[in-house]
Each structure stands twice: as structure tokens, then as C-alpha cells.
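Why Amino acid transporter? Reviewers of the renewal asked for a concrete example.
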Amino acid sequence: MSERTSPPRSQNPHTTDPVTLDDDATLHAMGYPRKLTRRFRAFDNFAISFTIINIISGIFSSFGFGMNAGGPRILIFGWIGVSIMVLFVGAAMGEIASAYPTSGALYFSAGKLAKRHQGAWSWYTGWLNFVGQVGGTAATNFAAATFIQAFITMQWPSYEATPQQTVGITAAILLLQALANTYTVRLVAVVNRISVWWLLIGMVVIVGALTLIPDHHQSPSFALHFVNNTGFTQAIYGGMLGLLVTSWTFTGFDGSFHMSEETVKATVNAPKGIMRAISYSAITGLILMLALVYAIRDYGHAVSAEAPPVQILIDALGQSTAKFLLLIVIGAMLFCGLANMTSNTRQIFAFSRDGAMPGSRWWHSVSARTRTPVKAVWLAAACPLVLVLPGWWSHTAFTAVVSVNVVGLFLAYAVPIFLRLRLNDFQAGPWNLGRYGKPVAAIAVTWILISNVLFMLPQAYPITPASFNYAPIALAVVLIIATVWWFATARQRFQGPVSYGRPDEVAAMDLI
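Here is what the prediction returned.
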């Protein structure tokens, strides 16, 4: 629903854009007045999920892990297989997004789809989504700070990176992203459009350089090369761990869902944004993955480097070209962190609107000047900073804190899809899967359960404090806190998504 340029509907209904009426009516029917400005078109909605998935950031951050857990065989064919599974998850989520196009997204739809205990389903989904997004923002920006220091070290060899400097750079990045998100949603949309082209052109430049410049590439059969350096003797276990490379990359596509209240024709454009983001990321990511794999020269040298994909660039292209391409990677990570914060802000705004967060009246307020939830933006910046601070003393401590990122997000994805699967009278929106809705949802939930088990299993042997997978502990801590909080006070005051009145009543509350 774009901003109204005509009088309110009660005075002159015939001059109001019908698209505005459709979007308004959908939101009002769900019990909410319009507080956010609709400036996201179909491309903008796609752009935010495509930016958060961010193939350049995801692949460069986790490629080294995949080189040890399965090698080229899993990096390539695992990417293809997991991408297909994620498409099922995206399709199932898209169907729900079409039915409930709100900023609350996952937690809102969980509350509406549950047959009983709507408040509890909504509560746990909302907090899993919140901590997952906060962890994602922290991890992405910490990775960006790490790569920035890698670039500085390449440029000035005397520079010595320290954990304290990494935390400081991360804090500066969070500040800049918060400032960008503070201004109008139009600026956010423009930045996300730029990020799409940055990713696509950057991918073409990196792939082109890796394809055309080196005088040597691996043979076609190298795609079948298998490596298991995880420390576990079972090759199949090492290979299954390698699937996490793709799973780590394909997170955050719920961003399109969270931006529903700022998207025109959200019942169609939000689910399309989810599916397009996953599809385009799958194709472009595979191309980038192939380029990196076939450019490897000395596997042992690259895999033992502090940043294996950067070492691959240096070995294949030389220091100067590698530095230039590293700037593309850093830019992609910064765009990813920005989009992550935008999505997190909208989830905070909606969760607070329903009274589920401490200080809710603060976080769901909207600036009259920018029409953005400014206070929620700064909360979305402060929380990742809190998670990053343990990295000042220990990288292991930081890893333990943010390890709930992917597990929390995928569990939040699974809950509404699982509840839709149980519901026989699901009221589908304009974008739906028809009779394939339930089979697709069943496959999606099954895959999420399998991948979440992998996320929580040991990922290296021998198991030490530094190599221990803290995801189960981090998840347990979140669930324990949410459960204690729920039974202590929340269940008395939070019953799930709140309705502000009848459609005609909430229409009168619209922020024009």
C-alpha cells in the first residue's frame, strides 16, 4: 500500500488506488492499523531476502569448513541438494506469507494457525526468530570485521589484527547500519536494490576472474573429490556435516515476510520475493561454488589457511587481484548485515505491537518524520553488540553465543509450517500451492528437523572447548529463559497476536 495521495476512503473512496485498498483491507482484517509506509515493490521485497541469503558472504564465510567436511563433492552436490530442500521450505513459508502478510510474520502466523495454546506457540516462535536474527546480525558483521582486517593485513603486512579491534570494527559497522535503517524505508529500499546488483555483478567479476585469469584449473573429475578432515572416522558423517555450508548460507529469507506491511501487493509479492531470492541464490551460488572449487591449486595449503577462500584467490590470481575481489566480498557482507538488521527491526516492531517484549510501547513506536520504527532499529543494533562483546576476550565465547543463529531461525521457520500441516481448513491467500500445500509443508518440516540435528551435532574431533558445538547449549538457554518467563508472567498478559478492533475501527487508526 503506497502512501495515499487522495483523500481518505471515507471521504472519496473512488479516487484511492485499488492496490492500496487491497493491502489496507488485508491488514485491517488481521486487526492492525497501518503504521508503516508501503514503498517496497516486488523487486525491493525480493532484494531484502536475496541480500540476507547473500551467496558471496555465505560461501566465503563457510567455504573452509566445507573443504574439510566433504570437500568438492559435498560443496558442489551438497549445494544442489540442500538448495532444493530449501525451496520446499520457502514455498511452504510463502504460502503462509500470502495468507498472513504482516511484519510479525512467523510468530503471528504461528498464533493464527495453532488450534490450541495460540499464545505459547506464538511466544516461542517469536523469541526463536528474534534471537536467531540478532545472532545472524552479530555473526555477519563480525565476519565482515574479520575480512576487513584480512584486507588491511594484505595491504599493510605490519598490521596485527586483535580480537579487540575486531569487536571495535563490528561496533562501528552496527552504528552505520543503524543510522541507515533510521531514515526512510525508501532509503532502505534503494540500498537493497544496490546490494542486489553488487552481489550479481560481484559474482560475475569473481567468477570471471577465477575462470579467465589462472592458467591452470582442476580437471572435471575434481568435483567428485572427497575430503574428511573433521577428525571423525566415518566418512558419511563428515560429508553430512558439509551440508551445513549450504544450510548456513540459506537463512534469512523470512525477511520478505517481515517486510510485508511495507510491500505493495504483499499477498503476492512477499511469497514471490521468498521464492525468487532462494531460486536466484541457488543458481548464482552454484556458479560461484564451481568457480572457487576449480580454481584451487594446492588443496592442503588452501585448507590450512586462516581464510581458505581468500587463499584460493591469492594462489589463483595474485595478491593485487585478490585484494580487489576481497573488497567485493566485504561489501557483500556489509549489505547482508544491513538487511539482517532491517528484517530484525520489523520483527521487533511487530512483536512489541502485540506486547511480547519488555518496553513494548517503546519498540513499536513509529517516527512521524521517517515512518520507520526508529527505537526498534537501535534495539536491533544494541542486541548484536551485546552478543559480540564476548569476542573481546575469546572467539570461542563469541561462537558459543551466536551459535543459536541458524538453529533459532530454522526452528522459527518450522513452527508455522508444522501448524499449517496440522490444519485441515487452512485459508490460503492468493499465492498458494493448492493440493500440493500439505506435501510441500511435510517435506519442509522434515528437512528442517534433519538439518537442525546436523546443526547441533559435534563438528570436529577431538572435542575441545574451542571446537565444541555450543548450539545445543545456546538453544537450551534460550528455551529455558523463554519457558520460565512464559510461566512466570507472560502467559497472563500475552495471548498471541492482538487485534486492535474491527476492520472499520482499525482503519480509523491508520497513520497517514
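The first strand starts at residue 69 and ends at 70. This is the kind of structural detail the renewal will allow us to pursue systematically.
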